[in-house]
Write the C-alpha cells for this entry.
Amino acid sequence: MSLKPKLEAIIYAAENPVTLEQIVQLVKESTPAENDTDLKSQVRASLEELVSECASADRGIEIRQVAGGYRMATKPEQHDVVRAFAKSLKPPIRLSLPALETLAVIAYKQPVTVPEISEIRGVDSSGVIGTLLDRKLITTAGRKAVIGRPILYKTTKEFLLRFGLKDVSELPSMEEFEKLVAESFQSDLYPAEASGGPAAGASGEQAPVAEAAPETSEQSPGPSASEVNEISDQPVEAPAGRTHE
C-alpha cells in the first residue's frame, strides 16, 4: 500500500497536530525501510507530496504545519460555506447520566417497558423517558400484552445516526457501548450536580455515581453569529475521523 493514504488517514483522524516522529512510529511496522533514517525520509517526502496535492485549487481541505506537527483545516476561501454549515447544525443534545443509562437499557433490551427498565437500573426511570422522547432518541413501540398493557419503547433512526450504526444489530458490547457514549456525547454531556446519592449502572449493579438533577426538555442553543464570526478569520479544522469501535 502507498504511504500517502496512510499519512492522510492519520492526519485526518488526529485530534491534535501529529508530528513527523509520531507518524514514523505509526507506519514503521507496515512500511519497508532499511533503517529509521530512510523511513523518516520516505515519510517526509510523502508528506510534502500530500501537502502539495491538497494545495491544489480543486481541494477544499489543506494540510498545514501547526505547532511542530501536521493537521487538516478548511481553506480560507471556503469559510463562507463552512460558516453557513455551522449555523445550520442542530443544537447539541444534553443528557444526564441516568438518561444515558436508560438509553443503554432500551438499546439492548428493546422493545422494553418502563417497569422493566427501572428493574434493571434499580431506580425509577419514568422521569427520563420523556427526555429521551423529546430528543427523538427513543419512540413508542406499541403495548406489551400483559396486565396493565404498559407502553413499549425502542430506539429511533436519530439514535442510529448519533452513534453511527447501520441498525441495532451493529450494537457493540456493553463495555464498547459505554465508551462510544462517552465519545459521542463528550461535548454535549452536562453531568448533573452531585448530591452524594448512588445511581445504578445500566447493568443493574449499584455504582457510586452522582445523583442526577431533574431532566428538562430544554436544548442548548446552537452556535451564535458572534461565535461563528470569531472563527471566520482562521482555517476551520477538519473534524476528527470516526472509527467504528
About this structure: Residues 36-54 form the longest helix (19 residues). The first strand starts at residue 61 and ends at 66. The chain has two domains: 3-88, 97-207.
